[in-house]
Amino acid sequence: MLEIKTIREKRLEKKWSQTYLSQLSGVPQPTISQIENGTRQYPTFENMKKIAEALDLRLEDIFLPGQKDMN
Hints:
Layout: H1 4-13, H2 18-25, H3 29-37, H4 45-54, H5 59-63
Helix pairs in contact: 2-4
Domain HTH cro/C1-type: 7-62
Organism: Priestia flexa
Keywords: DNA-binding
């Protein structure tokens, strides 16, 4: 399950606007907004990867929230 709040929380923690995250990640701001508010139900893997990298998150943090690191 995709954990949208992780993206929003991390962005707000960094005090970044959606526009700034868009500039860093290369993902259009409207797409980030749609992902955060849940209107984009199936974001592309590539966009999620770019957002995760910009926020210094692992994809597991977004797609498997609450899972312990298995390594």
